[in-house]
């Protein structure tokens, strides 16, 4: 079993990269389960998502708490599902969305308390690209989905993702897939 985490800010293309990873692994005959967070099909994920549409520190902290509970639910489900590989879309880098005085310690707590995946992939894009993708969804923007906040979040995620595999997803999807394949090869060797 291999456990992959695909993380990055909103609009970075995490789900797209996760889907490509799933297809690559399945083409090798492996079974793959993908868990996306927050998972709006589960109670904790729905509550977290609701708080993300609010603004302010209390809403950010509440969204994070319910997000973590959603993650724990996925970890429990991972033990019950019989797949060769697991992919989590969003994990510990969500701490970058916490207020300035909390994000580093939040990441250390999350990273220390939760199990470590076998491979961590940070999907990086600039804030303008992210906003363009967010707006194409046609959904209400979450509290962090402004250019200023995405710029700040990107800087924090780049800091926290030291040692992670990084995929630049600012250009075409085929280029990102080439980077993903290269990262997988490096991880397997």
From TrEMBL:
GO cellular component labels: cytoplasm
Superkingdom to which the source organism belongs: Archaea
GO BP term (any one): dTTP biosynthetic process
Keywords linked to the UniProt accession: ATP-binding, Kinase, Nucleotide-binding, Transferase
InterPro entries according to UniProt: P-loop_NTPase (IPR027417), Thymidylate_kin-like_dom (IPR039430)
Pfam family, one: Thymidylate_kin
Entries under PANTHER family matching the protein: THYMIDYLATE KINASE, UMP-CMP KINASE 2, MITOCHONDRIAL
Name of the protein in its database record: dTMP kinase
Species, as recorded: Methanomethylophilus alvi (strain Mx1201)
